[in-house]
Amino acid sequence: MRFTKPVRFRHDDALTRVSRSEFERLVATYYRERGYIVEHAGPDPAGHSDDVGIGSNLTLTRGDEITVVQCKHWVAQQVPHHDVHQLMGVMHAAGATRAIVVTSGEFTRPAIEAASRFPHVALIDGVGIRAMLGKVSEPPLPVLSANDTAPWADVDDRTPGRAPVFAAVGAVIVMALMLCVMYGVYIHEIQRAQMQAMQQSASQPHAGTAERVAQAPAPVVPDVP
Fold it and tell me: Which of 1, 74, 127, 199 gives a 20 to 30 Å CA spacing to 13?
């Protein structure tokens, strides 16, 4: 995937959460209500998705005016200048008179500078498109399973780590070791108590014998006449 810069300010509203196709539909509806004949061009011939390819998503026709529009529902990354130059090529190939790049986010500074050199190229950023569309209804909440991701959430391309699994295994091992130690201490205490009991029982008979000997009456010696 090509390198893109993150946006300086990320919007958090209904337009951010609509799908890519819904974003394109909203833009198409806006121009259709202003007298344009709107045709959906779809992905570019290279097979890219609707907001990644270099082709136009919409073709606007009103009289002799033909405008190609590329919709980029990018809420986290800035649209680079490459897309501006590429859409200009598409504009000339289609015989269009104007080209518009619409994004729900931001453009890089080089992209803005590139478009400023051509009066027939217009850039509409997230602030501009929100002013044009007005209030947008919140999309219906999707029903997600445990393994699903919300469509507006950023996708992490990294493979999920195994740290939680290792942590769980480590916790089980620690608990097992603690139980073994506690069991060993318990057995040791039992054995010590048994030894003390045996020693006490062994010493009690001797003590009783000595006591009996000490208490025995002295022998009576008869007087000899």
Answer: 1
